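TL;DR need structure tokens for one chain.
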Amino acid sequence: MGSGKPPLILASGSPRRKALLEALGYPIRVAVPGVEEEDLPLPPKALAQALARRKGEAVQGEWVLAADTVVDLDGEVLGKPKDPEENRLFLRRLSGRPHLVHTAFYLRTPKEVVEEVHTAKVFFRPLSEEEIAWYVGSGEGLDKAGGYGAQGLGMALLERVEGDFYTVVGLPVSRVFALLWARGFRP
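>> reply
TL;DR here they are.
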């Protein structure tokens, strides 16, 4: 840190968010907030925002970024599956249908806090039981909202995405970059 530039503190344990920000060249320090991601009795979009805020407020620092991603199937939150059986159930429900993915972020700068929620629409192609079993067997979906990762093996399940693909991955990168850039925090 010889330049004296403070790091961007990422209030998230997500390796995907960290990799996206590092790919842009930001100095990152991860500070996993000790907050529960329990289901608050909120609609999906508001839940994403409440959890992102809770994570961001739990971490100290000059430049802090927190985010939370919620999968919304007809107004119902599909969280991280608790086991492979629930992962299988989620994929059966998503198969052949569209759903929404809301990613909220909380950005604290030395002067202000910016909070936004971005939404993308994801269309799954119809999946066979064999395909579902293959994906569940990979274990990839167990630590991800909705039980799938759009940027990993889960790319084989998606027909198309309307909106920002990176919102589905877990961070609306272009928007976060533009906000940081405009505030003088540059890679």
